[in-house]
Amino acid sequence: MLERFRYADLTSSHGPTRGRTKTINGIAAALPYMKEQKSGHFINVSSVYGHKLGPDASVYCATKFAVRALSEGLRQEVKPYNIRITVISPGAVATFTRRAADFWLPSKTGANALRLIKSAATR
Fold first, then answer.
1. Overall domain count for the chain
2. Domain extent for 60
3. What is the pTM for the complete model shown?
4. Do 49 and 64 form a contact (C-beta atoms < 8 A)?
5. What CATH number has the domain bearing residue 17?
6. Angle 32-43-11 (CA atoms, 0-180°, nearest 5)?
7. Dist. CA 98–CA 114, nearest whole Å
8. 17-26, 32-41, 47-56, 57-66: which has the highest mean pLDDT?
9. Which residues have a Cβ under 8 Å from the Cβ of 94 and sit 6 or more positions away?
10. Catalytic residue numbers, as ranges
11. What is the DSSP string of the chain?
């Protein structure tokens, strides 16, 4: 089902999404090949804010929760094809947006996220 989904499907009926469909388009592009070979592994990146709401971040939190919900739905959909789904939910990272808000966390957060992605990919 998701392999037939495209960015235009969102923009035509729900307005602009400003790049929030990269996860969907990536899945849609790779899913037919993974189904054909009856194996694969998607690693989607969400955020800790996909689990817990933060002040003044409801839209951001909603998009990160959407990645989790999409991943769980996909997990159920592709189970017969031996395709695995992993969701990485790192904590806050010092991005340009966060620097502008004067909000910093130790740089090891990014290193921890990378370690989790590598670990998930080798399982």
1. 1
2. 2-121
3. 0.62
4. yes
5. 3.40.50.720
6. 65
7. 19
8. 32-41
9. 103, 104, 105, 107, 109
10. 60
11. -GGG--HHHHHHHH---TTTTHHHHHHHHHHHHHHHHT-EEEEEE--GGGTS--TT-HHHHHHHHHHHHHHHHHHHHHGGGTEEEEEE-------HHHHHTT----THHHHHHHHHHHHHHT-
